[in-house]
Amino acid sequence: MTEPPEPGVVLDVDGVPRGQAVLDELMRLLELERLEVDLFRGVSPATSPVRVFGGQVAAQALVAAGRTVEPERQVHSLHAYFIRPGDPSRPIVFRTERIRDGRSFSTRRVLAIQGGEAIFALSASFQLVQEGLEHSVPVSAAVPPPEELPSIGDRVVSGAGAAWIERVPRSLDIRFVEEPVWTEDRVATDDPLRAWIKGDGRLPDDPLRHVCLLTYISDLTLLGSVVGRHDLSSTSVQMASLDHAMWFHQAFRADEWLLYECWSPAASGGRGLAQGRFFTREGTLVASIMQEGLVRLPRRG
């Protein structure tokens, strides 16, 4: 007999928790505990993979940086390296350095530490809102609206899910435009891979929360675009993020639909380069991403 959900928890069509309560839990996870001036501590969710999810530690590090900057200065870019796999059963300490506070820009550096060793390093830049030239590239091709695409729960019920995604509570609503790289019946393509994504609930108006959630989201499907150009499933390769960079161009809400367009321009030496772009429903480019990751084929013999 299936256990009834906790009060306030909504179940997806396949019985997995989703909605506002799950989104609130993710945002509490990203909020961090302040230990001392410029020193914070974060944890991983109870339901975690073998290593800490890269988007989680990147978002938490950005929170640590953002909590040392005046709220009027908003994140415009970040550059990061994944140094060691994180252990999700242990807390992560985030040490922030205040590199510079100028008239318009502030720079912060954050080191994520477990067991006395660095697992992740982040540099982030913040800027006072200013006026200037504006232009943007359009979405590469027309896409169906998210309401016409299957949800993750719909995919699981239809048998098109994957084990890793069937058990995890869904703080995000994700609607893939093309077949996800973890499905067996997909075909290789040189076209971008796209998905509509948003927080499955409502967030406060704090811009830092929206930027940090988008940072979390950005690591979810990006590296899969490397596999997308080849005739194989992502479940048959080893993948891990090596470095990550983001630029934020316009204000946005991460609890409203954003189209994530991912494409891989190159792969070699067991590594793959991926680039991503987030667009609003109106077609405005709000963020750009570059990432290189480890992409290893299984050993033969």
Automatic annotation (TrEMBL):
InterPro entries: Acyl-CoA_hotdog, Acyl_CoA_thio, HotDog_dom_sf, TesB_ACOT8-like_N, TesB_C. Residues 194-294 form the Acyl-CoA thioesterase 2 C-terminal domain. Keywords: Hydrolase. Residues 51-127 form the Acyl-CoA thioesterase-like N-terminal HotDog domain. Belongs to the C/M/P thioester hydrolase family. This is Acyl-CoA thioesterase II.
